[in-house]
Amino acid sequence: MVTLSARSFVRLLLQNTKVLCSLPKLQLIHQQKASTRVSVAEQTFFNEGHQNVKPFSEMPCVKSYPIIGSTWVYLPLIGKYDVKRFHISNTMKFQEYGKIVKENVGGRFTTVLLFDPKDIEIMFRHEGKYPARTAIESLLAYRKMREKYFRTAGLLAIQGKEWYNLRSKVQAQMLRPKSVQSYLNQMNQISDDMIARMIHLMDNMGEVPDFLNELYKWSLESVAFVALDARLGCVDLEQAPNSRSQRLIVAVNDIFQGMNDLEFMPLALWRYFPTRTWKRFVNAQDVFTETAMEYLNKALERIKASAEEDREMTFLETMLSKKQMDFRDVITMVLDMLMAGIDTTSHSMAFVLYHLAKNPDVQERAYQEVRSVLPHKNKSLSVSELNQLRYVKACIKENMRLNPIVQGTVRELDHEVVLSGYRIPPRVLLVAQNMVACRLEENFPEPLKFKPERWLKDEDENKTHPFLFIPFGFGPRMCVGKRIAEQEILVLVTKLLRRFRVEYHHEDIDCYTRLVNVPDKPLRYQFVERKN
Questions:
Q1: Average pLDDT estimate for 400-424
Q2: Does residue 140 contact residue 162 with C-beta atoms inside 8 Å?
């Protein structure tokens, strides 16, 4: 995140007061118009079901000022929260304000942070057929600027019926277990190749240099096979330092950092003229789009050449065969899969290995389960064998409780709703704080301890609220790549446990926020070869 000194911030504020002053007014007008659309049924809901509802104005609030809103709390010198570590900042807000708190972001919109799973459930129950969340405006602006490639901005940026129509064309196959399982053989091979590359790169201490970047390569190789029907060579033993796959990884990392900076900069000046951050973001997007298009065009040539083969169609072939799906929609979906599939699974892998290394007793139990399922360490995993790995799955699940990919989920409702006894007007951004909630003693016993046993039904005596742990979201807008990601991670974790004992002897690893949660220390894991 790009930061400003207090003096620089004041100077920019004074220079751009005229532009910024209009933003709160526009937001107020938008909310006033939206509030007139509350239905009679919704009014009855409030009048009959909530007799003692408090007004929105009485909700606990992070101190806010005209124009800049609550953004000052994240600024250096004068602020009190770390803008890069939202899980820590939001825990502090929970401790200070309680289970619900509002703040004004950059003077542009109001958010309400939800820490109570009962409120989170109400939010999801009211999201409707077309769940709305904040669009990633930087991505929307870029894809509008490059409309020769894109008909829409993709599932991350579009809303309403347009989002629903695009989502409905791809979700059936991506969430169907049989479709995902059809990629298992290749995921086995990719994991084997990843392990061979790790051994090739290990130093005399058993550490893999720049291991996070190697995880990026593994995750790109895995998701690219699903999205493009092709192996990219990301986990080959020998690679050029500036290979096309590495350029994709660098571009995606720059894109996530750029989106984080552009979406959360207090002044959002890039909307009015091309700032340095916007230019850097556009350049990274161009590199990613052009490089990914090279791979996509090759995939299309292969599909045409094998069109007469009698076999089940792949995900890419299914998208291309849908006559109602514009070719530019296919491009958008493929690029979104590649972009979203690198940071997410790689960071999950990074943290699950960390927790296993820090908890050797847990790791040993997981290893014994793996060894019973895979007596021979070089054997490929079948669907049946994956289903037997209950404790390994519990380890992955517990990792996602402590270190989910994102802090939580955002929704924007088109009608009023009551949360924690407060009347919430329409169009306010509701932000479910699942990561913080999952680390609270009131929700999980010993919340900061890595205890996979809590997820085994025959051992778990604690009943948790179903809306506490939802790492892939919930409802119509649940992560469409959920099953693919789960299978990728399970295969590699299992194969690594079968081959190595994982150790870590350095300072503790936490995370920082870059739209998604990123490890904040180098991944200096030591991989000790098992004898049998």
A1: 95
A2: no
SS3 131: coil
User: Under DSSP, is residue 114 helix (H, G, I), strand (E, B) or coil?
Assistant: strand
Distance (Å, whole) CA 528 – CA 532 = 12
Please state whether the predicted TM-score (pTM) of the whole model is above 0.90.
Answer: no
Give the model confidence (pLDDT) of 272-318 as tens digits. 889 999 999 999 999 988 888 888 888 888 877 776 666 677 888 88
Sign of CA dihedral 185, 191, 193, 199: negative
Q: Residue 388 belongs to what H/E stretch?
A: none
CA 5 to chain centre: 30
Residues 6 or more apart whose Cβ sits within 8 Å of residue 1:
83, 84, 260, 261, 264, 514
Contact 465, 114 (CB under 8 A): no
In the chain, % helix, strand, coil (3-state, to 5) comes to 55, 10, 40
Taking CA atoms, 412 is separated from 127, 133, 168, 427, in Å, by: 8, 5, 21, 5
Tokens found for residue 449: 């301890």
- Tell me how crowded residue 44 is: count the other CB atoms within 10 A of its CB: 10
Give the chain's count of helices (H) and strands (E).
19, 10
Query: What is the per-residue pLDDT across 42-80, written as a single tens digit (0 to 9) for each?
Result: 444 444 455 689 999 999 999 988 878 888 888 888 889
Rounded to whole angstroms, the Cα distance separating 139 from 29 reads 25
pLDDT higher than threshold 80 for residue 325: no
Rounded to whole angstroms, the maximal C-alpha distance in the chain is 71
From the CB of residue 255, how many other CB atoms can be counted at a distance below 10 Å?
A: 25
H/E segment holding residue 433: none
Give tens-digit pLDDT for 509-520. Answer: 999 998 899 999
Burial zone of 259 (CB within 10 Å; 0-12 exposed, 13-18 middle, 19+ buried): buried
